[in-house]
Amino acid sequence: MNENQQELFPPLHYSLQRHRLMHKFPTNPERIYAAEWFRHNKRNGAGWRALEHILDPDLGKRTWYHMWRSKPVVTHRDAVVAACVIQWLGTNCGLAFVKGCERKIAAGRAADETESASRRWACQEVRNLKWMETSLKLEHQQKVEAERAAYQRRERELREQFEKERVAMREAFARRMDAAEAELKVYRGIVLTRLTG
Fold this sequence. Notes:
With about 200 residues, the chain is mostly helical. It has a domain at about 5-90. The protein has five helices and no strands. The termini are far apart.
């Protein structure tokens, strides 16, 4: 059956167990699943049905332009098998299958979130360690600079003190030399007066 024939004789999306859909209570999961599947197999704006998307081997590779081109041919058998599987998902076994898969997905997501949280915690710890290392380096650098400034200040003070002491010693030595010269002049005068007297 080609695409034109399929448009003339579209496959009916009914399962082989339609008698199970006749239960009157409104919360029959099989009826809800089957009705939603039938509703999803109406053509969308691009002219595709849900089952055609599922049976398309190039799903995910098509561009918007290619969506308007040839669609996969859906046989009556394909539609019946898909409808049976969808209706089976509404049974107790199918619901258990779906819920089991959802539990595994939730557990996987929780594990991913735990791993992500652990990774975030590890990244935060690394950032904290880097910040502490930077702080310690900065503190050490400030301490070294303070010690260097104190050493330079002390060295400057000692040099100034040494220079003052040297100037004071020079002045004291000059005063002593002046006093010695004055005393020597006095002695010379005394000696000359005695020699000439």
